[in-house]
């Protein structure tokens, strides 16, 4: 791929990369994969040569102790580390290396959305939170905008709670509702891939369970990659789990294998709670 990609990562309607990842002799369609991804903050190599493939319409959890490089990996996938770290290696998405310098990052983020640990709604109404970026991208058709607001809020399992008061400030919602609003805001852009960095860790158990239910529904339409410290959450919701330790991917497999019969002693120790 060449420099003419600058400003033109217009992939709407194009097919996903046909890269196939082989696991247990089954073939799976891959939404995104990394090759030799290495991230350094100055002299600190926080992530070493990570090769991971993410299956389409599945949830993959990234687990590991604090400082093991999970968030560094996740943030690199939509180029959040560009200003603070050196990111080497490839991030392949639909046949393009989106870690290449000539990729339009703004355009790429429409395809790969991010939700953070703390809900960060804009100080605007519920509906404006969803329509803001769409309007910035030139969509002003009121009926179309209203339709997207409704669909996104329904997909994020928030519609029933807010449908009668869409003009209310987003900041008046509970933390759990705000996080589902932020998810609705992300999916309003119709991304392929949703990256979530501990999206439920700041929430109470009931709100956290609602986020989990929401993610299980969303995986019908999106490929989801989530960082979590919560082992039960990883085993409940994810299809695949990658275990990180001191900047390396130690083991990556089907979630049920990681939690019932991991192959590497470090993984056994971590999932059994022997360190963390
Ligand atoms: N912005 C940054 N500047 C400098 N060093 C950083 C930065 N972000 C992370 N690091 C370092 O990179 C390493 C990996 O951190 P990272 O946040 O990716 O780990 P993590 O597994 O996500 O941890 P946690 O679960 O605590 O969020 C750590 O040594 C951390 O101090």
From TrEMBL:
Domain of life from the UniProt record: Bacteria
| One GO cellular component term noted in the UniProt record for this chain | membrane
Which Gene Ontology molecular function entries are recorded, alphabetically? ATP binding; ATP hydrolysis activity; phosphate transmembrane transporter activity
Q: Name one GO biological process term.
A: phosphate ion transmembrane transport
What SUPFAM superfamilies is this protein classified in?
A: P-loop containing nucleoside triphosphate hydrolases (SSF52540)
Q: Which residue ranges does the record assign to the ABC transporter domain?
A: 32-271
| Keywords assigned | ATP-binding, Cell membrane, Membrane, Nucleotide-binding, Phosphate transport, Translocase, Transport
Which Gene3D superfamilies does the record cross-reference, listed alphabetically? Answer: P-loop containing nucleotide triphosphate hydrolases
Q: What is this protein called?
A: Phosphate transport system ATP-binding protein
Species name: Weissella bombi
